[in-house]
Amino acid sequence: MVLAELTLPEEPPFPPGEGAEGVRKEAEGVVGGEDREAHHVAEGHDEEEALERRAHLARRLHVLVEEHPVEKLPGRPAERPHAGDASTPAPLLSSPPPHAMSDLAVGLVVLVLGWFAVGSAVNVRRGNAAMKWLQGGLKLLGDKATVRWLGTTAVQLGLAAAKAPFEEATVIVFLEPRDLPWLWAFSRPRGRRDALIVRGRLARPPAEDLELLDRASWSGRDALRGLKEERWSVREPAAPDRLAAFYKYESALAKADALRAVAAEGGLPVRRLAVRRAEPHLTLHVDLPAASVDAAGFFRMIRALGELAASR
Fold first, then answer.
1. pTM value > 0.85
2. Which end of the chain is less congested by CB atoms within 10 angstroms, N or C?
3. Sequence spans of domains, the chain
4. What is the largest CA-CA distance in the chain?
5. Whole-angstrom distance, CA of residue 101 vs CA of residue 112
6. Residues 110-129 pLDDT 10s
7. Which of 36-50, 160-174, 217-231, 288-302 has the lowest mean pLDDT?
8. CA-based nearest residue to 129, from 196, 55, 227, 53
9. pLDDT tens figures, 102-114
10. Spatial separation of the C-alpha atoms in residues 131 and 147, rounded to whole Å
11. Which stretches within the chain are classed as H helix?
């Protein structure tokens, strides 16, 4: 975690190239066999021991013969052992070279470290570009921001003295976990993408609770899990690409439509728009903006959403 204080519109500090998002634990697999009593052994145990002693003795004799060779008599051919001769030691199975497994482990470590380095570099570059874009409009929300890099997948900017209608605001650049291949492979098919999140505490708390969700998105599904703890009514969207409206009182639906219309002015796909009586009063999730999007227009839209959310 890296802390810095950002005074807009100065250039923010370049993020560190190293970092870890946290300690991730992986479950250990447990292999079980059939339940047997402690005294139970395989049949033919005595025969197996005898064969092992025989093979051991044959190997010892073979060593002794190699150390003290016996000269063959001239003209007498050497005898070949019969295939069924029990005294002939069975050929031993060759085991893989001991360094094979270590080479495989080293290769796997190099692959993971290489992926981590490349993924971290991509996230740092995208985070730095997002910070540069934010400077074009963040001053409309607050004059001074505290920057915190959370590993290589998130940048948090806190505005403790935000401008009206906010008292406090937080802007988060939320990136895909490109530095960890297993987590990236798990989250990307489920819709996780680079996102921009804005949360605010209003000077005047809202009078209702609302959730506008894109249920196909990562943000929408994450919010749905929290909604199960309370009783909500839902108005299904008129089109698949629209937002579903979750509300507790029908009187809030008119404000939901007004909020959706204002959010559309930002020019970015909205994945979640929440208005709550409890903090944070306003939450907005959108796709991470491209450099061509007007940052000043986006933050003007954020302030308009705050004013509408606080209205009675």
1. no
2. C
3. 115-310
4. 118
5. 17
6. 989 999 999 999 999 999 99
7. 36-50
8. 196
9. 888 888 889 899 9
10. 10
11. 45-67, 98-134, 181-187, 218-227, 253-264, 295-310
